[in-house]
Amino acid sequence: MRHIIIDTPGAKIKGNSPSNPANSSLFQPIEGGAGRLTKVVGSGSLNFLPAIISMGIWGYAVGTVNIAASIVAAIAFAIVVDDTIHILSHYVKSRADGESPVGAISTALNVVGRPLLSTTLIFSIVFFVFAVSGLLTNQTLGLLVGMTVVIALAADFFLFPALLLAFDKTRE
User: Fold this and answer.
1) Cβ proximity of 26 and 43 under 8 Å
2) From residue 153, how far is each of 30, 81, 160 by CA, in Å?
3) pLDDT tens across the length of the chain (172 residues)
C-alpha cells in the first residue's frame, strides 16, 4: 500500500487524517490502489457536493447563515464520507475479484445499499428532531445536517455509480 505524505506548516500528515477533511476525502482512497482518478473524483468532489447544495438551498430559502449553518459542512462531512467509502470499498473489491464495472457497482449497492439507507434515515430523523427545538441554532443545525445527509445518499446512489462508470479506464 502506498502512502501519500503531505507537508503542512509544522506537521506531516501521512495517509488519512481525521483532522483534515480534504485529506480524508481526496487522498485516503488513492492509497487503495487502482482507479485513482475515479476515487479522487468520486470521493472528493462527491462528498462536498451535498453540503454545497444544502447551503445553496438554505441561502435561497432563508438568506442568512448563522454559526450553526456555518459548521454544518464539517459535521455532515464525516457522515457523508463514510457512506461513499463503503460503496467505494465494495466496488474496488468486486473489481479486484474480476467483475465488470456494472457488475461491481451492482454488487456494491446490493451489499451496502440497505444499510446506508437505514443509517441515513436514522441520522436524518435524529437531526430533523433538532429542527423542532426552541433554540434557533439547533433548528438550523438539524435542518441543514438532515437535508445534507439525504442529498448525500441520493448522490451516492445515483451520481457516484455514474462517475465510477465514466472514469473507470479498465471497463469492458
Assistant:
1) yes
2) 22, 10, 10
3) 444 343 334 434 444 444 444 444 444 444 444 455 445 554 567 788 888 888 888 888 888 777 777 787 788 888 888 888 899 899 999 999 999 999 999 999 999 999 999 999 999 999 999 989 988 888 888 999 999 999 999 999 999 998 888 887 665 5
| CB of 16 closer than 8 Å to CB of 39 | no
Q: How many residues does the chain have?
A: 172
* Ramachandran angles phi, psi of 6, nearest 5°: -115, 125
Q: Select from 13, 39, 28 the least CA-distant residue to 169.
A: 39
Give backbone dihedrals phi and psi of 35, rounded to 5 degrees, phi first.
Answer: 75, 40
